[in-house]
Amino acid sequence: MTYKIKKWGGDDEDIKLIERAFEFAQKAHTGQKRLSGEPYIIHPLAIAEYLADLTHDIPTLAAALLHDVSEDTEYTIKDIQKEFGDEIAFLVEGVTKLDKIKYKGTERAAENLRKMFLAVAEDIRVVLIKLIDRLHNMQTIECMGPEKQKRIALETLEIYAPLAYRLGIGEIKGQLEDLSFPIVSPNEYEWLTKNLKDHFEERKKYVGKLLPIVNRELKLEKINYVDTHARAKHSYSLYKKLLKFDMDLNKIFDLVAVRVIVPEIESCYAALGVIHKLWRPMPGLIKDYIALPKPNGYKSIHTTVFGPEGKMIEFQIRTS
Ligand code: MN
Predict the structure, then answer these.
(1) Count of Cβ atoms closer than 10 Å to residue 260 Cβ
(2) Residue 91's beta-bridge partner residues?
(3) Is residue 189 helix, strand or coil?
(4) Is 248 helix (H, G, I), strand (E, B) or coil?
(5) How far is ligand 1, taken at its centre, from the CA of residue 250, in Å?
(6) What is the DSSP letter of 313?
(7) C-alpha distances in angstroms, 285 versus 42, 193, 253, 289?
(8) Residue 78: count of CB within 10 angstroms of its CB
(9) What's residue 103's pLDDT?
(10) Which is nearest to 133 in space by CA: 87, 66, 77?
(11) pLDDT, tens digit (0-9, with 9 covering 90-100), for 214-267
(12) Are 64 and 51 in contact (CB under 8 A)?
């Protein structure tokens, strides 16, 4: 993690603080183990590592390292405050407060709980730490008993994933949902596994091969573009979409989607031409939301093409 901090230009003081927080947490959790049998410190460390890719806020990273100290060890928030100051103590206390909010109920209660969650957190950084805390707990959930797994996974699906979405971190939403899905709806998950040819990991690999081809072709045709990125649709969001399409996988065209960002509108059409030259478009699926914006103001060109290996890819072309 110190490597990451150096890379984004953090100074020696930042690194010293993070090292102090790590040492404090390690001392506080000495002798404690995760359900997996690993030393407890693995958990806060994994969270801080993950967060270092999302934020450059040093207090957030320090608080992540310390987030379970006051709950699970002999040290208190007061000790953290003495050692690390008010801001970090406030963040740790916030995470501890959120631990007490638990979801057991219905859809209606979920919305109230999400609101309460944000109110109790007071600071968006607290929510961020808690989301990654949950992500790590979900990644290691197989160590828990089946009853607890169900409760935690349902809570993740109803409370945490929507909060991640609200915070604009869709990748974490997708991961939280995909980890919960097999536990909350095992039959539906099994159905999807049986009926889907390419699973998320395979789609991700495919996406990795796709982008260089697109970039090369755009450069070759001298199209000015700002950025291209691609994503593979997560399993749970695919399942939810299927519910709206009679569970017909043939009606889903965005298992793989590529976004091309160009500097001006003219380049959108030029880029569309390049993509259609590269891969044959599917009739009826070219949508020009630039000429005809959606009622909510959405402007973009969509097209679906038969990509490499005959797989369908949705392209979205827009200006920055
Ligand atoms: Mn934790």
Answers:
(1) 26
(2) none
(3) helix
(4) coil
(5) 41
(6) E
(7) 48, 27, 9, 12
(8) 10
(9) 87
(10) 66
(11) 999 999 999 989 999 888 889 999 999 999 999 998 888 888 999 999 999 999
(12) yes
- 74: tokens are 């002999």
- Cα–chain center distance at 8: 21
Spatial separation of the C-alpha atoms in residues 46 and 54, rounded to whole Å: 13
Burial of 290 (0-12, 13-18, 19+ CB in 10 A): middle
Say how far apart CA 192 and CA 236 lie, in whole Å. Answer: 9
- Enumerate residues 6+ apart whose C-beta is below 8 A from 231: 207, 256, 257, 259
- Model confidence at 298: pLDDT above 90: no
Structure tokens at 288: 């020009």
pLDDT digits (tens, 9 = 90+) for 108-162: 788 889 999 899 999 999 999 999 999 999 999 998 999 999 999 999 999 999 9
Would you tell me how many other CB atoms lie within 10 Å of the CB of residue 63? 32
| Count of helices and strands (H, E) across the chain | 16, 5
Amino acid at 60: T
| pTM attached to this predicted model | 0.85
User: Are 126 and 95 spatial neighbours (Cβ–Cβ below 8 Å)?
Assistant: yes
- Catalytic positions: 71-72
Tokens representing 147 are: 């009853």
Distance, in Å, from the CA atom of 35 to the CA atom of 140, rounded to the nearest integer, reads 9
Distance 67 CA to ligand 1 centre (A): 6
**Residues paired with 258 in a beta bridge:** 230, 315
**Distance in Å, CA 129 to ligand 1 centroid:** 9
Tokens 């890379």 found at: 7
Quickly list H helices, 221-305: 235-244, 265-278
CA distances from 258 to 213, 229, 305 (A): 12, 6, 11
For residue 207, how far is its CA from the centre of ligand 1 (angstroms)?
Answer: 33
Contact 156, 179 (CB under 8 A): yes
Cα dihedral angle (127, 103, 65, 67), rounded to 10 degrees? Answer: 100
Fill in the DSSP letter of residue 301.
E
